[in-house]
Specification:
The chain has helices at 3-15, 17-26, 31-52, 61-85, 91-98, 101-112, 120-137, 149-171, 179-194, 197-200, 210-238, 240-261, 268-284, 298-303. By secondary structure, the protein is mainly alpha-helical. It starts with a helix and ends with a helix.
């Protein structure tokens, strides 16, 4: 499989998650049940892959405690909130709002003092990214369809991812546990944390259909478990830069699938807002290149006056 093909498959599987959530909601499942089943199936996939690779789960209590924190902010909470948000917001817009995670990560890094000093380009990207979100909401238009509790919940879920990534970088990565086993353990913890959610949010939109069941199974197995594995493989084989590039494709996939499969309206404003958000994210990810070392022309130096 070529790099471009692998990237395309990963973007399609990952970006389709918003579609599967919407289908599951529309066919009787509650956000709580979607969250629980998604975590359970994703954990099952990763446990099988970790076992096949000979990777063992962590055993010490401290690591599991940290995994519980990461699972809450990276899985249980945002998975649930995305389900709640998509009850009133289109799946394509949900994918676009999910792309704001790097912007929240930058803000959190600045607040914690872990980010390097802001360059003009990164500051412009931060402003541009949130300007894109404002363009999508368009509060000046008088149409409050997007500027709703559901849309704000989706932004909160994206911020939760950013909190999780900052915590995981500090407390979990690079500490001896194999990445796939660590991911499996994290989704196991998320399954335990999300177990009360179905009972707390009982009562869906109607009778659960086979379409809803199929959607949540695909969401858990492919858009959660398998994407974790493919993303890990891409980082290992091609480096984090290639893996990060997939993030730019997710909102494109979610918007396209929402329009094609669910007949969601594809307005010029939403497309323009998506483009602005992605441009802002791209600017915030720019790393200034070190100044090139000054080269000495040895032949001239040797000649002398």
């Amino acid at each position: 499989m070529t790099s471009a093909t692998r990237m395309g498959v990963l973007a399609l599987l990952w970006g389709s998650g918003f579609l599967w959530i919407k289908l599951a909601l529309d066919h009787g499942l509650t956000p709580g049940w979607i969250t629980f089943v998604r975590c359970l199936l994703g954990a099952g996939v990763l446990l099988a892959l970790a076992y096949a690779a000979g990777q063992r789960l962590p055993r010490d209590r401290r690591t599991w405690g940290r995994l519980a924190v990461a699972a809450f902010f990276c899985n249980a909470l945002p998975f649930l909130v995305f389900g709640i948000g998509e009850q009133t917001v289109d799946s394509g817009v949900a994918g676009v709002l999910n792309a704001t995670t790097p912007l929240w990560s930058l803000l959190i890094g600045l607040a914690l003092g872990t980010e390097r000093p802001m360059s003009a380009a990164r500051l412009a990207g931060l402003v541009l990214g949130f300007a894109g979100v404002l363009l999508i909401f368009a509060p000046w238009s008088g149409d409050s369809g997007l500027l709703s509790a559901g849309a704000l919940a989706l932004l909160g879920a994206s911020a939760s991812y950013a909190v999780a990534f900052a915590y995981m970088a500090r407390k979990l990565t690079g500490r001896g546990t194999a990445p796939m086993a660590l991911s499996a353990a994290q989704l196991l913890a998320a399954t335990a944390l999300s177990a009360p959610a179905p009972l707390a949010m009982a009562g869906g939109t109607g009778a659960v259909t086979w379409v809803g069941v199929g959607a949540v199974v695909v969401l858990g197995v492919f858009a959660t478990g398998l994407t974790f594995h493919l993303n890990y493989r891409m980082i290992a084989d091609e480096g984090p830069t290639s893996a990060a590039t997939v993030g730019y494709l997710l909102p494109v996939v979610s918007v396209a699938l929402g329009a094609l499969v669910l007949d969601e309206p594809l307005t010029v404003r939403v497309v323009a807002g998506m483009a602005v958000v992605l441009a802002g994210v791209a600017l915030t990810r720019r790393v200034p290149r070190p100044a090139p070392a000054r080269l000495v022309d040895r032949s001239s130096a040797a000649a002398g006056p």
